[in-house]
Fold each of these.
Amino acid sequence: MNGVAMMNPSCSFPDPRRAPREAPLAFGGDLTMNRLLAAYKQGIFPWYEQGEPILWWSPDPRFVLFPNAVRASASLLRSLKEPNWKVTLDTAFTEVIEACAKIPRPGQTGTWITDEMIAAYVELHRSGYAHSVECWHNGVLAGGLYGVSLGTVFFGESMFHRVDNASKVAFFHLAELLTDWDFEVIDCQVPTRHMASLGACDMPRTKFLDLLDKSLARPTRLGPWTFPNQSSN
C-alpha cells in the first residue's frame, strides 16, 4: 500500500502527528491486547473490512464529544422519561458487540466488526479495558454501545439500536457517569450524523493528541464498571 507503513512484529506505530489526514497510517500486524492498547494510547485505532489487512487510522480532524456537553433532543428527553428503560454497564458485552456487528446500517453491505475484532475486544473487556453499555426495554436488550477506556478518555467503537432512541439513551447515561468521573473526552473517531445529533464535533488531530497525552497521565478505571445502584439484570 503506497505511502502506508507495514506493521512490524513490535507494537510500535508511525508518528500519528505525521499521518495522512484521511487514509490509514499503517497496515498489517495483529489485534493482540498489547498492540491495541499501544495504538489507543497514541490515538490510533483499527478499522478495516473482512478480507482486508488490518488498517490503522488516526484521522484529522478527530470527531469528539465532551461528556458534559451532550445535547438531548426533545425526542430523546421524552425517551429518557419513559419508565420501561433500564441501563446497565458491563453486563452483556459479547451480546452488545455481536449486535453492533449484525445490525443493518444504511449504505453498508457488510461489517468492519469481524470475528477477529470481536474476539480481540472481548479479551480487552475481560482485562478491564473495554466496556459496554446496555439499554433494556421491557427486559429485552434494545440497544447499546461499547468502547475502550484509558486514562480519562473513552474511545467509542460502535453502537446499535433495535428500539428508537435506545442507543442514545445508553449514551446519555454513559456521558453523565463519565462527567461525574471527570473524563476529558469521548472519542467518536469519525463523523456520523448520529453522534453529531448528540453534540459531537471536529477537533484538530494535534489538539486531540495533546488532550490524550494529558488524559493518560490519570489512572485508568479498570472494569467491570457499574452505574450507581445498578442491580443485576
Amino acid sequence: MRINKLRAFGTTMMIAASMVSFTSVQSKADDGKLTIYTYESFVAEWGPGPQVEAAFEAQCSCDLEFVSAADGVALLNRLRLEGGNSRADIVLGLDTNLTAEATADGFFAEHGLTLESTNVPGGWDDRYFLPFDYGYFAVIYDSEKIAEPPTSMSEFLAGDETQKIAIQDPRTSTPGLGLMLWIKEVYGDDWEVALGDLSARTLTVTPGWSEAYGLFTNGEVPMVLSYTTSPAYHMLVEETDRYKAANFTEGHYMQIEVAGITQNGADNPLASAFMSFMVSPVFQSIIPRTNWMLPVADTGEELDAAFLAAVPDKALLFSPETVAENRKNWVDEWLEVMSR
C-alpha cells in the first residue's frame, strides 16, 4: 500500500550464484550513478525508497537516484514520451498488466539473472522483469461509517449510492487499471451495467493511489480502492482496526509489481547489481512495513500475521498478453460509461 503511507506481502525467490556481485561491479562503477524511475509513493519519506537508497549505496559506493512519476501506468507513459532519450537505467513499479506492452515497445533489456525458485503465486518466468512485491486489490472501508460492508463485487456495486468511494484512473494508475480489470474479469462482456453502478458510487477518480487514499484517511470518503494489506498499516503503526478490507466472494484481482533494466541501463553494471539486491533479504525486509505489500523473497524474518490474514481465497489475474491486446479498448469503454 502507500498511505500517504501503504503497500505489502510475501513470496520466496533466490537468485543463483552466477549473478553479478556487488564487489565485482564496484570496480567497474567507481563514482557511478544508477537512475531508477519509480512511482511517487515508493520514494516518499515513509515509503521504501529512502531505506532502499541508503542500503544499496552502502554496498555499491555509488549514487542511486530515484525519479518519480504519479503511478505505475504513468511510468510507462513517460518512457513512451521520452523514447530513446530516457535516462532511466531501471524502471521499478510497473506490474504484470503492463509488462507485455513494455516488452513489445522495446524499452527493456533481458536481465540475465537465473531464478532458482520463486513462490510468487502462479510462478515466475520472465526474461525482462523481476518481481519485487505483490498484493491484492480491495475496497477498504471505514468501519465507523459503514457498519455492514459488502461481501461481493455485485453487492458493492449495487449498494447505497450515498456511501461513495475514491478510485484511481486506469490511464495513469496501476490500482485504477487493476480495478478496471477486476470488474472485467468478474463480468466479462456484460460489464457495462457494472461500470454504470461503479460510476454512481464514485466520489472522485484520482491520477494515483496517494491522492485517493489521502481523501479516505482525511474522512472525505468512507471507501477507497487500495489493497487487502492496507489495514495492516493502520493496525501495526496506528494501532487501530478501524479500517478494513471488504472480502469479495468473486475473488480479488492480484497485482505483481516488477522492475526491469532499460536498454539505456544495459551497459551499467550497477543495474544488474541492483536487480540482485532487489530480491535479497535486505531489500525484501524493507517492503512489508513501508510499501505495505507482500514480499517476493526471503526477508530474513517472520512476516507479521496482519499481512497473511489479508490473503483472499481466490486470486484473479489476466495474462500480460491479454491485457496488452485489450487495454486500450477496455479503457475506452470504461471512460465512455464512467463519463455519462
Amino acid sequence: MFRALHSAVGPMFAPQTYLRAVFVLLGAALALALGIAAFTVLAIVIDAGAPVWGTVLLGVAVVGGPLATGLLPGVRQVEGAAAHSLLGVRFAGGTPGPAHGWRQRRRTLGWFLLHLLAGAAVVAAVLGIIALAGSWWLLPAAVATFAGVFVLGRLLAAAGPALLGPSYAERLEAIAARAAGRNRIARELHDSIGHALSLVTMQAAAARKVMDRDPDYARDALGAIETTSRRAVADLDHMLGLLRDDPRGRAATSPEPDLAGLDELLDAARSAGLQVRATRSEGLSELPVLVSREAYRIVQEGLTNALKYSADRTAGLRVVLGGDGLDIEVTNPADGRRSLRSGRGVRGIRERVTTLGGAACARIQDGRWTLSVSIPTGRARP
C-alpha cells in the first residue's frame, strides 16, 4: 500500500513536474497576451462602426497571424530547447534545430498550437475560478486546475518527440545516411590499408629471400615498406578523423589521393614485383575531384588484386577518357586459386561506381581476370 501511495503522490514532489508546469504556464501567458491583444483590436474596430465583413477579416488576421508564426523555421529550435530543458523531453539525434521543409514546419505548427491550447485551457480555468469567488465550488475548482497543469505538462512531454523530433521517415533517412557513411569509411580502410599491407607483405617476403645475395635490393624493399607504411598511417589517421569528427579539422583538410598520384601507385606495385603495362589518356587532371578520387581507389584495389592473384606477376591497366565517361580496365592472368573474386574489394568497387552512376563488371574470360569500370564524368569529349 505504501508503494502504491508513493507511486501516486511521488511525482507531485519531483522537480521535473514543476518544470513541466512552468512550460504550461508559459503557454498560458502567451495565450493570454494574444487573447488580450485580439480582444482589444476587435473592440476598437467594432466601436468604430466597421462593417461586419471587415471585422471578421480583421479578426482572422489578428488571431491567425500570431498563430502562423509556428511555421517560422526558428520556432522549432526555440520550442525544442524549451521542451528539452523544461519538459525533460529527450529527442532522437539531439535537440531539434530550425525546421527544414514544410513537413517539419507543419508539425512544429501543430506543436505550437497544442502548447497555446494547453495554456488557453489554464487561462480559462483561472477565469472560472475567479467567477466562482465566494462559492463552495471554488476550492475543488482550484485543486482541479492545479492538478490539470501537471497533467497537461505530462501530456505535452509525451507529444513533444512526435511533433518536434524527427519523423519516422527522417529517422530512416538518418539511419541510411549513417550506414552509407560507415560503408564509405569501410571501403576506404579496406582499399588503402589493404593495399598497403599487401605491398608491405610482398616487399618483406622478397627482401627476406634476397637479403644475403642482393642486399641492395633488400634495402630498396625496406625503403618501399617504410614509404608505404607512412602513407597507410596517414590514410588511417584521416579515416579516424572522420569517425571521431575531429574538432581540429584534420579529416576535412587532409588531402585524399586521386589520379594525380597514379605514377606513385604504379611504382609501388612494380616495386612489389608486379609488372604492370599501363595505358592512360591525356586530360585525367581535368576530371571532377570526386571522380578522380574514386577512380584512384578503384585502380588501387584492382592492382592489389592483381598483385595477389596474377598467375605470372603481370597485369594490364587502362585508364582512358572516352565519350562522356572514364573507362578503367585492370587485367591479369588468372591463377586458378580463386575462380571469382567476390570479396569486399570487388563489392566496394561496385558500390563506388554505383554511387557515381556508372557500371562495373568483374569476370574471368579466356584465362584472364578482367575488371571493367565505366564512370560518367558529365563532360562530353570529341
Amino acid sequence: MNRLIETGWSSLSKYGEELCGDNIEIARTADAVVAVLADGLGSGVKANILSKMTAKIIATMFEKGATLPEVVETVTDTLPICQKRNIAYSTFTIIQVREDGETYIVEFDNPAVFYLTQGKIQQINPQMVEICGKRIKESRFIMHPGDIIIAVSDGVIHAGLGEILNLGWQWENVAEYLEQIAINNLDAEGWCQWLMNACEQLYAGKPGDDTSVLTVKLRNPKTLTVALGPPRQRKDDAIFTQLIMAEPGKRVICGGTTGTIVARQLGREIEVNLDQLDPVIPPTGRLKGMELVTEGIITVSHTLELLKQYRKAADLPNRTNGAVALARLLLESDKIRFLVGKAVNPAHQNPDLPLNATLKMQVIQEIFELLQKRGKEVTICYF
C-alpha cells in the first residue's frame, strides 16, 4: 500500500421529495478509484432513476477500461429523451485517481470541481472536447498526498437562492469556504459533512434542489505498530525492540512486562499516567518514542469489545482510558502491524484450552479479523 485514496459523499433531497435526484457511484480497482456524481434531470423519482443509471453505467464502463467516447455514447443511447426539453441525460462528473497520483476528470454540465492542494484552491484548466454532440471538459494532472478534489451538484452553488442569499452561494463563495475549513485537516467524509451542513443551513432546512457532494482525497497511509507480550526467548528482546523502533508511524506498547523490556532496551523510564484513572481500565503510561503505553490483556480485551461496537473513531465514547485510546488508534490507521510475544502468562491461561491457545492470542486474532474486514492492511509477527 503506497498511497491511499479516500472517498466520501453526502446528499440532501429536494424539500418535499423522498428520493434524491443525484446519485454517486464509486468503483475501485487494484490501483485506482473511479467516482461518479450524476445529477438527474428535474427531481424526484424520475431524476433518481436517470442519475442512478448514468452513474452506474459510467463507473462500470470506466472500471472495465472503456474510453470516454464509448462511455458518453452508451449513456446517450441508453437514457430516455425528455419530451419537453428534447434532452436525454443527467449531468455528470467523473473523477479517476490512481495510487501514483495520476488524475483524470470529466465534467459535463455540472459545476466545476474544486481542487485543493495545501489548503488552497488551484486552477485545473480543463480542455473542451465534443463527443456525440456534447461539449465535455477533460482534465489531467498529478495529485500529491494531502490533495483533495470536491465535486458538487448544482444544489450546492444554488444554496440559499432567493432566501438567505439573492444569487445563491455561487462557486467562488464555496471555494472561499473550503479554504477556510482546510485548517481542520479533514478526511474525505469530513469535507462532505462540513459542506453539506453549510448547505442545509443556507437552505434553512428546506433544500430548494437536490444537493450532493463527492470528495476524493489522496494521502499516505497511516501506519501503526502494536507490541503485545514479551518474546518467548529473552535473547529476542533486543530484536523485538529494534523492530518496534524501525517501523514508521505511531507505536503502541501493551503490557507491563513488554513495556519494561522495551524501556530497558532503550535506556528509558516509563511514567504512569495518573491523570486518567478509570474504575475498570488500568492506567496508561508514557514512554518516549511511543504514542501509547497500556496494560495488557484487560485493556486489549476491552479494546476488542469497542471495535465490535464502533466502526469509526469519531463514534467512540468520550472517555479517556487505554482501551478507548487504543481503539481510536486502530480505527484511524490503515496499515497495522502486531508484534506479539508468545511468552505465556499463567494467570491468563485457561486449563481447558490447548497450551498455545492463550487468551492473549485469541483476542489478538479477533482484533486482526475485525480490522481486516474493515479494509485495514494487517499483519502479525510472533516472537
